[in-house]
Each structure stands twice: as C-alpha cells, then as structure tokens.
Design a protein that fits this description.
The complex is a heterodimer of chains A (277) and B (161). Chain A has a domain of 78 residues: Rod shape-determining protein MreC, domain 2 (Thrombin, subunit H), CATH 2.40.10.350. Chain A contains 4 helices and 12 strands. Chain A has a 6-stranded antiparallel beta barrel. Chain A has a 6-stranded antiparallel barrel with strand order 6-7-8-11-10-9. The N and C termini of chain A lie far apart (53 Å). With 161 residues, chain B is mainly alpha-helical. Chain B has 8 helices and no strands. In chain B, helix 6 packs antiparallel against helix 7. Classes of the chains: A alpha+beta (277), B mainly alpha (161).
Chain lengths: 277, 161
Amino acid sequence: MAIVASVTLLVAEHRSNQLDFLRATLSFFIDPLKYLVDLPSVLIEQATDAVSSYTTLKKDNEHLREEQLIRQTQLLKLEALEKENIRLRALLENSFKLGEQVLVAELLAVNTVPYEHIVVVNKGTRFGVHQQQPVLDANGVVGQVYRTLPLTSEIMLITDPNHAIPVQVNRNGLLTIAVGSGQLNRLILPYLPSNADIHPGDLLITSGLGGTFPQGYPVAIVDDFSSQPEKPFASITATPTAKLDRNRELMIVWSNSTPMPLISNPISRTKVPVSHE
Amino acid sequence: MNNYYYGFGRIILTIVMAMCLRIAPLPPGMAIFNPDWVLLTLIYWSLALPERVGIFHAWTFGLLTDVLTGRMFGQYALAYSLVIYICLKLHKRLRQFPLIQQGLFVFFCLLLSQLLLFFIKNLQHPAQLHGTFWLPVLSGTICWPFVHTLLRFVRLSKRVQ
C-alpha cells in the first residue's frame, strides 16, 4: 500500500507540479522545525550583540559612516552614468535596462542535503518570492531560487554541481557558461576552446542570456587557465566573488518587473522610439 | 484505547527531534557524516513497539522528511516504509540479537534506504556516484548503539508499551 502510494507520488511529482499545494500545506508543519533549528545561532548572535562593548560599537559605527560616505559619492556618479547610459541606448534604439527590486532575506542555519549546495532562507511565497529568481549578495551572484514554500524558500548556489550560469568576460565580452563544481570556492568553465582570450584575474559577469539572471552582476574571477593539448576544450576554473559560505543576508531580486522609465519627461515629449527585445 | 495513546507523544517527540538533527547546521566537513536520524529512530520504535509504530508512521514521516529536505515527494516515504516493513517482519528475531548483530542489520537497512534514494535520484537525472554519498550509512551504524540506548531509556522511563 505504502509503496504504491509513494511510487504514485513520485510519478505524479515528476510529471506535473500539481503537488505544490500539498507540499505547501505540509510545510506549515515542517517549516517551524527549520526556525527551531536556526534558533541557537540567532540566540548566539543576539548574545554577542548584547555583550559587545561600547567602544566596539562606536568603532563599528564610525567605520560604517565612513564607508557610507564613500559609497554615496560613488552613487552620485553612478546616477549620472546611468542616465547617460540610458540616453546612449535610446540613441541606439536599443532596449534599456530593466528596473530591479530587491528583498533582503536571511539565511536559516539549516543543512538539508549535505552533498548539494542548497540553502534555506526565511522568505517564502508570502513575500512574493517565486522560482528561478536570482539571488545576490553584496559581492556578487549567489544563486537562484530553487523551490518556494509559504514561509521559507530554497536557494541553489551557483557552485551546485547541477547549476550552470551564463557569463561573459568583463574585459572583452566573451560569452560562456560557468558550471558549479560541488566545491564552495570553485566554478568550472568547461566550454571554452584552448585559444580563448581569457586570463587568470579576469572578472566574469552575468551575460543576461537565458533570462534568469539580470545582466552585469559579477559572478567570479578566473583563477586558473590551462590548455589541454589532447582535448578540444581548455580547463578553466574560477572563484565566486560572492562570499557563499560566510554571508547571512542575501538579496532576492525581481528583475523582470516593469521597465524603468527612460529619462522621464524629455523623452516622452520628443517621442524617441523605444523598442523592447 | 487510552492505553494505545499512552506515550505516543514521546514517540512523536523523539522523531521530531531526529528531524531537527537531520537538518542541524554542521560544519561542511562534518555534514557529510550526518546520519539519517529519522530512519534510525523509526527502526528503533518499530523493533521495540511493532504494534504501535508501523508502515503508516514510516510513510507519513518519510513524506514529512521529503518536505523537510526538499526532495521529490515520496522518495523518503518509499525508502522508509520498505525498511520498516523488513524490520516489522524480523522484529522477533532481531530483538534477541546482541547489539553488534543488530548494528549489522541496521547497516543493511540504512544501505537499502540509501540505495533506493540513489536509484530514484538516478531516475530523475543521471547522477554521479560520489564516495561521500555512502558515509551516512557508516556513521549511522556507528551511532546505532547510542540511539538504541537513549531511546530505550526514553521508553523505559515512561514505561511506554
């Protein structure tokens, strides 16, 4: 009986996603467990916060203030650059960058499957998270949303062996695909020929192909390039820029929202043709 | 009827604790050794109280484990109910065995469950067999005496029958 039931479930899940509802219902009983397991680390964090001394806090505060000032100056410039970029793209009658919206999610300290790189965060469908959303941290791309439950969602890291992300070399725009290696500090670029123009130290950014990841976010830095004379492809490895094993806060990105308005008023008056790809 | 439900909370509680252990955050080096606590607990209860914990419980908790670990539905449910079926069939003989021999049996139970999981995973999409995939079987066998002693203590302290 039980075997028939489980095989039916397996086949049903494999064929369709009708069972998402059942999973969501069951997860109401299961998700509290995840929060429960996460509790000790939250408590430790709070305890260290509570006992951290006034001087450390003050130092931290000063440091952050300084950093914020620098960032803000950079942002000033960025805004001008962004406007300029949009103007130039409009001149080329090209599509412009889409507006992006982020949600900060916190990692739950749980470990569901040891040999797969899947992490759990504390935001789920209740916050509008949906499958295949890109996830970033302050330094680069972390992964994508793999499965959503009402209260939590699972994120597949870019280093998972089953994950591949379309990237391009920032220096010359060379397109390729970075595949996860199963190690937290390594990506593999298996599809580049031995004479490809790529060096250790090159920054890889998302290419925007494939539609899942928005274009232009840093993914990894190439750290090893070796051509294999007997094989058609070179062996290239890269290190992710995101701190995959250290971050507790992640950002879930909505990239396919409504397009950002072009330079709002003047464009609409002069009616520059805008084409969407 | 009252007798039937007596101590049931305890059984459930131990299984829930096993589920928490299952997803406990361990350092990456240790995580690959994390054994299947839920199955170990289920094996103990099915050997000790075969009239109370049966295939239905195994199936239900298997399904919950599926949700917990984000696997395909029915994967753990299938593995657990098969293992518990074997346990129930053999429980009279197994209870007479010394702990070491029981450990050997548990080893094969865990191996069977892991094999089933691997088989299903392979059906989904061809998976690479990595040596570390089998480590939880070994560590589970090593943990069995402790699980057995602990759960026995839980059972006898409340005289759950």
